[in-house]
Each structure stands twice: as structure tokens, then as C-alpha cells.
Amino acid sequence: MDPDIQLMMFVYTHFYISVTVLSKPESKGYIELKSKNPYDKPKIDPMHLTVEKDVNRLADGVRKASEIFKRMKLSQNDADECRHLNTRSIDYWKCFVIERGGTFFHPVGTCKMGSEKSSSVVDNKLKVIGLQNVRVADASVFPDQISGNPVATILMIAERVVDFIKNDQ
């Protein structure tokens, strides 16, 4: 099973920061053209947390992060300040992530790679289907979100594109 929550904690002298990330959200957004004018900005709707399972998983991750912080050896004032957090209901945490949640902006799949022309934008050599001499080499070619930060995978895709271009494939 892939990990579904990434927890990052940063502890500084007088404060701490906790970031809880939903690694593989099921909520799917979209991007579409507003018009045929290439200067018009596209319409983008990430549709974050529109699947209840995502809300539940993220809320549970934030609740667990608050429990971890409660147990950490922070100053007495910080520990007292955080003591009440784990007594909050899961409904509280659901509301919290919906109202305060954000994203790390790792969108994928807008130029899906594959051989099925009806749903793919690029082929397995990362060439844009129907165009010549145009390739895409970023996270948009991922068919699905990966469980973790995408930078290493993006670098691998870029390296493959370099090989394809060198070999003129």
C-alpha cells in the first residue's frame, strides 16, 4: 500500500510548524481553455478536497500530527497551549482542513502520457500527439499522482527526453 500522508515538522526556538500533506488525493481538478485566443488565461479548478475520502484522510493526518506535537518536549507554555488539540473531534479536523487546507501544487495528468489517443496528450516518447518537434517533460505527463515529492521523477523524465532527442526518436 502506498503511503497517503506526508508529515513535515519544523521546530524552531520559539515556535513550530507542522505541515500535513495528502500524498495521493483522489479529488481531481481540471484545466481548460477559455477561448481560442492563446493570450486568454486558462480556466483552472483544482477541486481540492472534493472527495470525502480525501477530507477524512487529511483530517486524520492533521489530528495525528497534533498528537505528536503534544508529546514533543517543547517549552512548558507551548505544551500547555497544544494540550487541548487531540481532544478535538474528527469533525473539527475535517472542518479545519476544508477551511484552512492548502496544496503543495504538485498537479499531474494534464498532458497524460500513453498510447491511447483519446485520453493521452503525449506518446511514450513524450511527443505531443498530432504535432511535430514538440515534447512535454514535466509532471503533467504523469498518468496519476505519485506517493511522494515528484522532483526525482520529473528529473528522470527530463533525462529520458534528452536521450530521445539525442537519438532523434
Question: What report would you give on this structure?
Answer:
The protein is of the alpha+beta class. It has two domains: 5-100, no CATH class; 106-168, no CATH class. 32% of the residues lie in helices and 12% in strands. It is built from four helices and four strands, in the order E-E-E-E-H-H-H-H. The strands form two sheets. Strands 1-2 form a two-stranded antiparallel sheet. Strands 3-4 form a two-stranded antiparallel sheet. The chain is elongated and about 60 Å long. The relative contact order is 0.13. Residues 78-82 have low confidence and may be disordered.
- Number of helical regions: 4
Global shape: elongated
What is the gyration radius calculated from CA atoms? 21 Å
How many beta-strand runs? 4
* Biggest sheet features: 2 strands, antiparallel
Mean pLDDT: 83
Organism: Leptotrombidium deliense
Protein name: Glucose dehydrogenase-like [FAD: quinone]
GO molecular function, one term: flavin adenine dinucleotide binding
Domain Glucose-methanol-choline oxidoreductase C-terminal: 25-158
